[in-house]
Specification:
Blueprint (H helix, E strand, L loop, with lengths): L17 H9 L3 H23 L2 H17 L10 H20 L10 H4 L11 H19 L3 H12 L4 H8 L3 H19 L4 H10 L1
Helix pairs in contact: 1-2, 2-3, 2-4, 3-4, 4-8, 6-9, 7-9, 8-9
Length: 209
């Protein structure tokens, strides 16, 4: 199968939900899988971008993950969620890439808006607000890089991607309690590292001065 195109072919309300699309794709229906590609490519790209810190490589890895999913659909257990299975494939692709580097680069969260600008959305923030937002993103990227891979993955999936704990535990194949524990540690550690950059902290410093 050639890599599916990015042309949107799924529109809300057309009656083709994930289950139907997966069933059709497992039967060899390539257009059905192209719809799944369109639905999920941006999501797994986002995870991989946050994991690897490389926009171009994340595009390649997301393509690899989707192709692996297509080739292994016959082994997909339809009793579980397709999205969970696909996220797991994507995370494993990201892990393999990071292992190949033998180091884990900082996630460029401070670059996401630059990499994916929205020309139709005007930025009405003041220069000071933009500078503060950029500073905070850079600080968050640096703080995330100080987390262990396990804590970082949980934070990316649970906090940045807003996936429920149950799904995160399924993706990472660990207990829900482990996910909650890792998330608690990640949030506490990040809050400590980002304390100087938070608005309330800035205001308190200004009042003290």
């Amino acid at each position: 199968m050639n890599s599916p195109t990015h042309t949107p072919v799924h529109t809300p309300g057309d009656g083709a939900d994930d289950t139907q699309l997966v069933e059709q794709a497992r039967a060899g229906n390539e257009p059905a899988f192209e719809q799944l590609f369109t639905l999920y490519f941006p999501k797994i790209y986002g995870v991989l971008h946050q994991m690897t810190g490389d926009a171009a490589m994340s595009e390649d890895l997301a393509q690899q993950a989707m192709i692996k999913a297509w080739r292994n659909l016959a082994g997909f257990d339809a009793r579980s969620k397709f999205s969970t299975w696909l996220y797991r494939i994507a995370v494993n692709c990201g892990r393999d890439y990071l292992r190949s580097l033998k180091s884990r680069p900082a996630a460029p969260l401070n670059k996401l808006d630059e990499d994916q600008p929205d020309p139709e959305q005007a930025d009405t923030r003041t220069p000071e607000d933009r500078a503060r937002a950029s500073e905070l993103k850079a600080a968050l990227a640096d703080a995330l890089d100080k987390l262990s891979p396990e804590h970082r993955e949980v934070f990316i999936l649970g906090e940045l991607q807003q996936l429920p704990y149950e799904q995160v535990s399924s993706i990472l194949k660990c207990k829900r309690g482990t996910v909650m524990s890792r998330m608690h540690y990640a949030r506490r550690h990040l809050l400590k590292l980002l304390q100087p950059y938070l608005p309330d902290t800035r205001e308190q410093k200004g009042s003290a001065a």
